[in-house]
Write a structure and sequence with these properties.
Radius of gyration: 22 Å
Order of helices and strands: HHEEEEHEEEEEHH
Helix content: 25-40%
Strand order of the largest sheet: 1-9-3-4-6-7-2
Number of domains: 2
Oligomer: single chain
Strand content: 15-25%
Shape: elongated
Largest sheet: 7 strands, mixed
């Protein structure tokens, strides 16, 4: 028998399982239960978007830079910018990449010549409803330059219709169902809430502990001030 690696229940199936975990069988479910489930699945994913870094939400984005333009609007689903670098086109068709570093709003405000041009070396990520990234130095005519950055994005919306699947990898499925069961218990089975919360915390800890890059840890002393 051939091995398969395709286990991924639909969101609707996972919702039914979450209700079963708190003692509500499928035959007892009403339209109200399903309306609450739809909202709670998306509130759960909003919560997870605040519990970064979730590696399954990290992707690489690219933005061509414009001479003299310092600020660029990022996709609205961008939660955080992790690493960024500037790709500089070379005459032989290759690119040279230079890492740029994050600064706080306060640090950026302290720069006396914000329109000074050159190869960007730092960035300020402004977490607005429409997030922006501001570069310094401001891109000059020495390009073309391309900003490339790894970001955390929000988890895609959950829909119970049409057999939609959750925007999570296999290793997070149990934690997702346990967290949803905890939220639904608060509404429909308060006597099960404590047990459901404990299971949600247990499965989250397992998934989050494994959701890391397996690389050596190097610690160096910081020389800049602390900021939020």
């Amino acid at each position: 028998m051939a091995l398969t690696f395709e286990f991924m229940p639909s969101i609707a199936e996972l919702v039914l399982n979450a209700y079963s975990r708190i003692g509500i069988r499928r035959t007892a479910l009403t339209a109200e239960h399903m309306v609450d489930a739809r909202l709670e699945t998306n509130l759960l994913q909003a919560e997870w978007s605040n519990q970064q870094v979730n590696l399954f939400t990290v992707d690489l984005q690219s933005h061509p830079l414009v001479e003299g333009q310092s600020t660029y609007v990022l996709p609205t689903e961008t939660i955080a910018v992790l690493d960024a670098y500037i790709s500089i086109a070379q005459g032989d068709g290759t690119d040279e990449d230079r890492v740029i570093f994050p600064v706080s709003r306060t640090e950026y405000a302290s720069y006396p010549r914000k329109q000074e041009q050159g190869v960007p070396s730092v960035f300020w990520f402004d977490r607005l409803n429409s997030p922006t990234i501001t570069l310094w130095l401001v891109p000059d005519a020495g390009g073309p330059y391309v900003l490339r950055y790894y970001r955390c994005r929000q988890v895609a919306d959950a829909s119970l219709e049409n057999g939609a699947f959750p925007d999570i990898p296999y290793r997070w499925v149990d934690a997702w169902v346990a967290a949803l069961a905890s939220r639904l218990a608060r509404l429909h089975a308060p006597d099960r809430l404590q047990d459901a919360m404990g299971e949600a915390m247990r499965t989250w800890a397992i998934a989050a502990t494994q959701d890391t890059e397996n690389v050596p840890l190097r610690i160096t002393p910081g020389v800049s001030g602390y900021y939020r």
